[in-house]
Amino acid sequence: MNNPSTKNLPNEIKESKFKIFIWTLFDFANTSYSIIVVTFIFAVYFKEVIASNKPVGDLLWSLGISISMIITAIISPVLGAIADYSSGKKRFLLFFTLICIVSTALMYFLNQGDILYALILFILANIGFEAGLVFYDAILPELTQPKNYGRVSGYGFGMGYLGSLVVLMLAVSFIQRNLIKETFPLSAAFFLVFAAPLFFVIHDTRKKIENKESFVKIGFGRVISTIKHLKYYKNLVVYLLAFFFYIEGVNTVIFFAGNYAKTTLNFSMTNLIYFFLIVQTTAILGAVVFGIISDSVGQKKTITVTLYIWLFTIFVAYLTSGTGGIVKSLGEIFGTTVEGFRQGSFYAVGLLAGTVIGATQSTSRSLMSKLTPFDKKTEFFGFYSLFGKSSAVLGPLVFGLVSYITGSQRYAILSIAFFFIVGMIILKYVEDPDAGKS
Asked: Which pTM does this prediction carry?
């Protein structure tokens, strides 16, 4: 049986180390947004300042996440189909990148009580970031051969976490001087400067468009046609279903890690900086190492290993964030207070999570590249975005609701394990066509 991902692959793909580097530089740039806005500083600023540290802050934050992800999920397949038809990936990527950068910079003007404006800016920024990834990810198959997808994708995520590490170090001086809002334009400027080279070095292959129909009509038509023929892509459909569930857990961790550490474990902003420095450092190593491993043993096996590590991480986080007898006993053994032990153990959780957070995302992207028909790569990455972004609606919403209803984020963390388990079960039925091949 032919692998649909290679059926229409050009005979020669000119591999350029320089172009691959420039492509990974965009990962280096855009994680300045994800770490400053989504995961760390703005997430905490929204809860503590804009929402006045009220419990409903978690619910409002999850609502903003859900709305942005729903919109992205709906538009991604259609925009991807249009980009495939017109070879316009770079133009779409530029448009959404600028939306993210401008919206992030404007967050500087938000103050206490500006909940509506904050949600609008965050939703716009997150749509720009997430929708842009559809077109960025779809460039990967044009840069290298399928046998190298794992490591090249890993290099991208490794550069991404290196970027977030650098921008965090730049943000330290701002945070120490209590210049929290100034980190938002810092993130925007960082994104702009290091994303720019991609738009000058990597070029779309232009197509002569003879059909005068509107792009919107063509986009919807191609998506509907693909849906009608999904029976020819059963393996890919099963994979996307597995991806939907397990990436749910990853997204929820990303969206709530900062709030969880600050609210439940009483981390100071300095503690949070150290925590995320640990996460970003181990994520660089994990993305690169697991990317290389996946090209040898197969992406499916690699993803499964990362999911087992995720389950162990969730269990450790729940167990060590309590205040009961076990935590008291462990605190006595390590010669520290209950709060000291809880905070210290969460650094270990960050180390574990960092090791697999980039690895899971990176290996998922490379497996998707392998399973995707070359001539429909952007459209199918639109479906990849559809499943990934729509999954990011449910997990954070469940986390926010459980936290709001129980008044405790500790119980909410257990909901994440469910998504990893279901994703792992479905993943067993996915065929990795080139597993073990050199």
From this structure: 0.73
